[in-house]
Amino acid sequence: MLIQISSEYDLSHNIWLRDHCRCPSCYHPKTKQRLLNTFAISPKIRPISVEATNEGLQILWPLEHSSDPSHPEHSSSSSSSESAHDSHAALYPWKWLRMNSYAPPLHQTHSESITYQEEIAGPGKTLWGSGIAAHPPSVGYEEVMKDDRGVWNWLEKISQYGFSFVDNVPPTPEATEELIRRIAFIRETHYGGFWDFTSDLSHGDTAYTDLALGAHTDTTYFTDPAGLQLFHLLSHEASTDGAAPSGGASLLVDGFLAAKVLKDVHPEAYDVLSTVRISTHSAGDENTFVSPLLKAGYPILQHDFDPAAAAAAPISDLDAQLQTHTASSSHAPPHSHGKLVMVRYNNDDRSVLSLPESLVEPFYSALNKWHSILTSSEGEYWQQLTPGRCLIFDNHRVLHGRSAFVGQRRLCGGYVSGDDYRSRLEVLKKRYGGSVGSGSGSVSGRVGEKEGPLPRSVWDEGL
Ligand SMILES: [Fe+2]
């Protein structure tokens, strides 16, 4: 059906509209789960009537679910005398229709104000280079521990910059663990849950040595790499042979900025690293052999699904197209990708490279360009961790490393799952920021309401 929303037109399938009825008998208002039986909807369903009201689009659907004994009885609220016993009334708010339109996606058409940076990384992200050293994002320990508004402020900084310091943290493992748990549960891995270690190679990983580590993300070998990581340097003392403590500076690199630079300067290389899958592993502990679910691995640059791009080039064809593209012309236009959502990169963890012959050289060429950008001093932010100052970063965006060091360092910290971090941020944003989702606002409208838990509407973004 063709729907006019303000001055724009949107095409929606009848079956899609019927499937998205959010009345209490089709959609549970508390659990936000579908009650309606999708499979009882006729593929040829047509509305009995359609009416534009102030609240939204009012559609009277024929009652086709009554033959399904497992489906709750529908009672129409329609006043239509002709169809009252055989129909089901559904109301679709205009804002919801616009937000979820797909032919065309109207919510994406007002994009003149979207910057190129936002096109790559999404809104609300500030990409940074070495200059961030002059004003690194930070919050106070007391503020974070005091109330959830402090946690919200902290998570907003992490969301915007990909990292944040927390100052004035008591230099103890207990206080550090408590701090992490202000966000969510600690994610356990084969390294443990909350970890507290020195460079004793207690696990088979270079992190447990005193070697320099280049910029990398952690746990590239997990199907779902760790979301956040927090470090707290508890002490750095002389080594057992008396050598004075030195080195061990921490390195951060904004992977989203590095990706943007790669896309600007070498779009073909960006395509290669966004498409070619890398297999990875963790096998340094005798009792562990981790590799992700997809044995072919994942691209270094992972994007969200973009329906528009997918319509133009189905995902399943991308590898084949890339092969043709790189073999035929290095000047062909790059692919259109969705938003960049994850940088998954640790060259040390890469397994055997298994690619079609034609992609081997393009891959190494692209990897070299990526490495050059990552190791450029303009993108590197070096700083020295000190007891009392925690560093937390988004492991899906910011790469970290360190210089070699002398002496005994005691570090503690932990991972938080990306899903748990985003859940906490979303809820706090809704509670204190007056909006839902990534800046698009709530359909139900909550302007002026800033405090306290708010009821989640069945029309909220993301449901
Ligand atoms: Fe690491």
UniProtKB/TrEMBL annotation:
Residue ranges constituting the Gamma-butyrobetaine hydroxylase-like N-terminal domain according to the UniProt record: 13-67
One Pfam assignment: TauD
An annotated GO BP: carnitine biosynthetic process
Entry keyword set: Carnitine biosynthesis, Dioxygenase, Iron, Metal-binding, Oxidoreductase
Taxonomy, superkingdom: Eukaryota
UniProt-listed Gene3D superfamilies: 3.30.2020.30, Clavaminate synthase-like
Region (Disordered): 63-84, 434-463
One cellular component (GO) term of this entry: mitochondrion
Catalytic activity: N(6),N(6),N(6)-trimethyl-L-lysine + 2-oxoglutarate + O2 = (3S)-3-hydroxy-N(6),N(6),N(6)-trimethyl-L-lysine + succinate + CO2
Domain TauD/TfdA-like span(s) in chain numbering: 135-415
EC numbers, comma separated: 1.14.11.8
GO MF: metal ion binding; trimethyllysine dioxygenase activity
Enzyme class, spelled out: oxidoreductase
Bias type Basic and acidic residues, positions: 65-74
Cofactors required: Fe(2+); L-ascorbate
Protein's pathway: Amine and polyamine biosynthesis; carnitine biosynthesis
Family, similarity comment: Belongs to the gamma-BBH/TMLD family.
Function: Converts trimethyllysine (TML) into hydroxytrimethyllysine (HTML).
PANTHER family: GAMMA-BUTYROBETAINE HYDROXYLASE-RELATED, TRIMETHYLLYSINE DIOXYGENASE, MITOCHONDRIAL
UniProt name for this protein: trimethyllysine dioxygenase
Annotated organism of origin: Pseudomicrostroma glucosiphilum
